[in-house]
Amino acid sequence: MSTLSIHQEPATIVHDFDGVEGHGDVITYHADVTGPDGLQGVLVGVQNSARQHGDAHWDRLGTATFRFEGDDSLSVCGVIRYEADELHSKPGMRHIRAVVGGTGQFIGARGEVVSVRAEDGTFTHTFTLL
């Protein structure tokens, strides 16, 4: 088992509002990321929101890929629960998603990533890889 910590700058977000806020909304985003030993890259992701009528929360099913220089990438997938009126997660909130694969030095990667948002909009993503 190994761990890898990635720093993410604040994301550029596009929110495609479909007319029924919180249900079926599509959110795409990208952000610069850095890792150990000067590892540079970009995070690209998409989330789709679903909310039950009257529920104060919504679940966002999403996929994201951390693409680094060369052929190295890590892809993650999972559901994150948000307050119904939030576009961003609250600072300090932990989001856990599955690592579903990778390329290059991360080929065949499996495990999980814990993502935590800071007050300034940056994130720390801590990968635990099997």
Kindly describe this structure.
The model has no long low-confidence stretch (mean pLDDT 89). This protein has a single domain, classed as Allene oxide cyclase-like (AOC barrel-like). The protein is 0% helix and 61% strand. The protein starts with a strand and ends with a strand. Strand 3 and strand 4 form a beta hairpin. The chain has 130 residues and is mainly beta. The protein contains no helices and 9 strands. An 8-stranded antiparallel β-barrel has the order 1-3-4-5-6-7-8-9. 24% of the residues are buried. The protein is globular and about 45 Å long.
Compile the SSE list and pairings.
Blueprint: E1 2-8, E2 12-16, E3 26-34, E4 40-50, E5 57-68, E6 73-83, E7 94-103, E8 111-117, E9 123-129
Antiparallel strand pairs: 1-3, 1-9, 2-3, 3-4, 4-5, 5-6, 6-7, 7-8, 8-9
Helix count equals: 0
Shape: globular
Write down the secondary-structure element order: EEEEEEEEE
Q: Could you list the spans in which at least 5 consecutive residues all have pLDDT below 50? A: none
Spatial strand sequence of the major β-sheet: 1-3-4-5-6-7-8-9
How much helix, percentage-wise, in residues? under 10%
**Biggest sheet, in brief?**
8 strands, antiparallel, barrel
**CATH fold group:** AOC barrel-like
Number of strands: 9
The radius of gyration is 15 Å
Measured distance between first and last alpha carbons: 5 Å
Beta-sheet strand percentage?
A: over 45%
